[in-house]
Structure formats: C-alpha cells, structure tokens
Amino acid sequence: MLPSFKVPPPGTLALLLLIGLFAAAGQIYLTYAYQMDPASEVSIYQYSGVVFTALLSFAAFGETLEGRSILGGIIIFGAIFWVFRYHRGQGGGGKS
C-alpha cells in the first residue's frame, strides 16, 4: 500500500474523517450506555451501526441498497423498537 499511496481528494477525505468522527462518538456513547443500563437492553443498539453504515454509503457514496439490505434494516430497527417498548413498559432500565 505505501508505495502506491495517494491522498484522496479533499471532499472524499472530509467524508472519511466525518465517518471516523461519528464512529468514535458512537462508540463512546455506547460504552457510556453500557455503564447506565443492563447489557441486555443496550446490546441491541449496536446493530444499528450496520444500518447507519449502509445509509451513509448510500447518501455519501451513491452505493445501491438491495431489497434484502433494506429488509434487514427494517428488521433491525423493528427489534430495537420492540426492545425499547418492552423495557419501557416494565418501568425502564437504569441503575437503582
């Protein structure tokens, strides 16, 4: 890689830096969430990263999303919503 390394164009470089910044922020906040609530409630939210990566690649880089990818995203967000509603109905999580 090093002998043929080329700096990406400024627009692409900015997008890559933003992706890294948002990924780091997401990981920091997810780690904080694990401190605040039980892992069984928080772990489902990690899967949203897959969906957001697909959406960012669609919006920023023009990649196409197949029907199975869209269906998978709907299933992931459906599961996240279900876990949120289920635990909310039981009085929520949080440390006592």
Structural features, described:
The protein is mainly α. It has one domain. Helix content is 71%, strand content 0%. It has 4 helices and no strands. The chain has helices at residues 10-36, 39-42, 48-61, 67-89. The longest helix is centred in the first third of the chain and has 27 residues, at 10-36. The radius of gyration is 17 Å and the shape is flat. The chain starts with 9 loop residues before the first helix and ends in a 7-residue tail after the last helix. The model has no long low-confidence stretch (mean pLDDT 86).
Gyration radius over CA: 17 Å
Q: What's the β-strand tally?
A: 0
> Count of helical segments?
4
Overall domain count: 1
Shape: flat
Proportion in β-strands: under 5%
Q: How would you spell out the order of helices and strands?
A: HHHH
Major sheet size, sense and barrel closure: none
- Distance between the ends: 52 Å
Q: Approximately how much helix is present in the residues?
A: over 70%
> Which structural category do the helix and sheet elements fall into?
mainly alpha
Low-confidence stretches: none
Overall mean pLDDT stands at 86
Key structural traits:
96 residues; mainly alpha; flat
Record the SSE blueprint.
Elements: H1 10-36, H2 39-42, H3 48-61, H4 67-89
Helix pairs in contact: 3-4
Provide a concise account of the structure shown:
Helix content is 71%, strand content 0%.
